[in-house]
Structure formats: structure tokens, C-alpha cells
Amino acid sequence: MNEADKALAARLAQALGSAYTLEGEIGRGGMGVVFNARDERLKRRVAVKVLPPELAFREEIRLRFVREAETAARLSHPHIVPIHSVGEGPDGLVYFVMAYVDGESLGAKLKRRGRLPPDEARRIMLETADALGAAHALGIIHRDVKPDNILLEGSRGRVVVTDFGIAKALSSTTGSATLTATGVAIGTPHYMSPEQAAGDREIDGRSDI
């Protein structure tokens, strides 16, 4: 861990106070750094995602980060990672606390094992589709479905879909503004649908499939 990462962890620990104890970094992506932590009150492991300071000053990214928590919190489903709380430190640090998933991503498993047996691949696809179906029923499209955002929990490998950082709420009841412009492609290139790669804003749940 370099000095910048140590400083970020220290700031997050200060913002969390005595409620949570950080235990180390477990992952990072374009929209945040994820730490393993312990919920001292409920005596359970949790994951804490924090927006790096070099991104927090950009209002559109800050809004997108908070929206990830708000969007995922609306989705109560056994195959979608639960969000426990959202917080902000006195220095502008933004974070949210979510359930800890004890396992690995589908991406990591594919790199480690290669091609999966047909029955296992079918189960993972069905559970992922079940999660996306629940999101689509609420007018939410994920827009970044890929192996790294599909977590496999425990020995059975129960699917838990995560990272709704660029999800789009199609329903006007959310009250959230659109944070992308026409012609801007949002997502991971290798896993985008053609219409998403073209920057088309008029997409729906079919684009996730």
C-alpha cells in the first residue's frame, strides 16, 4: 500500500469512527476503492466502498457514486449485494457500507479455472438473470454487467450482482438526473451492447442481456 492509499484508509477510518474497524483493501475499480471492515455494533464483516479524493471533487462522479448506493439500496434481492448505509466525512470523503461477500468474482474464477461445466455456467446465468430481472422490474438497468461484477459467494458460488455505479433508472420516480450525455459510451467496452457502445441513451433492460 503506497502513501496515498494509506492516507485514504486513514481518512476513511476517521470518518467511520468507532462503528467500524477497517481490516484492509479488497478491491478497486474506476468508481472507488473497497475495504474489508468489521461492524463493531452488529459483530459482522462488511465491505466499505469509498470514492477516492482525486474523483470526489468532480460533482458528476460524486453524484454517480452516491446514486450507486441509492440504486442498489432499492433492490432487495438475494442475488444483489445489500447496501447498509451511506456516509460522508467532514473533509468531503464519501463512502457506503454494504454486505461483505465471502467469495470471488466470476472473472477471477474464469481466470483460475477456465471454462466452467455446463451445469454450473447455466446456474450462474440463471441467478444473474434473476437479479437483473428484479432490477429491470423496477426500471433500473445495470449497464456494466461483466464477470468482475458477478460475485460468487461461499462453496456453492451463490451469485451476487454488484457495482451499480453506472446504473440508469428509467423511472422518473427516482428523482435522479441523467448523468451521461448522448453520444457518450458508458460501461466496459468488451461487454457493451452495440447500442450502448454507440452512446445511445434510449436503452432498456435488453441491453444488459
Describe this structure in words.
This protein is α+β, with helices and mostly antiparallel strands and 209 residues long. The chain folds into two domains: 3-99, Phosphorylase Kinase, domain 1 (2-Layer Sandwich), CATH 3.30.200.20; 103-208, Transferase(Phosphotransferase) domain 1 (Transferase(Phosphotransferase), domain 1, Orthogonal Bundle), CATH 1.10.510. It is 31% helix and 25% strand. It has six helices and ten strands, in the order H-E-E-E-H-H-E-E-E-H-H-E-E-E-E-H. It has helices at 3-16, 53-56, 59-73, 106-113, 118-137, 194-197; strands spanning 20-29, 32-39, 44-50, 83-88, 94-99, 103-105, 140-141, 150-153, 158-161, 168-169. The strands form three sheets. Strands 1-2-3-5-4 form a five-stranded antiparallel β-sheet, sandwiched between helices. Strand 2 and strand 3 (44-50) form a beta hairpin. The longest helix is centred in the middle third of the chain and has 20 residues, at 118-137. It is globular, with a radius of gyration of 17 Å. Residues 171-184 have low confidence and may be disordered.
Outline of the structure:
This protein is α+β, with helices and mostly antiparallel strands.
Sheet/helix structural class: alpha+beta
Discrete helix count: 6
Broad CATH class of the largest domain = Mainly Alpha
- Bin the helical content: 25-40%
